[in-house]
Amino acid sequence: MVSPNTELAYNSKIEGDLVVTRADAVINWIRANSMWPMPMGLACCAIELMASAASRFDIARFGAEVFRFSPRQSDVMIVSGTVTYKMAPHVRRIYDQMAEPKWVIAMGACASSGGMYRSYATLQGVDRIVPVDVYISGCPPRPEALLDALIKLQAKVQKSPGTTKDLL
Amino acid sequence: MTAPADVFTAVQSQFPAASARPTLDHPAINVPMADAVAVLTNLRDTQAFDFLVDVTAVDWGVEATPRFSVVWHLLSTTKHNYVRVVAACVSDTEPVAPTISHLWAGANWHERETFDLLGVRFEGHPDLRRILMWDGYPHHPLRKDFPLAGIDTPLPDLEVGELTKATAAPAPMMGGPFVASVGEMNMTDAEPSAKDESWNERSNKPAAL
Question: Is A16 a member of any domain?
Answer without folding.
Answer: no
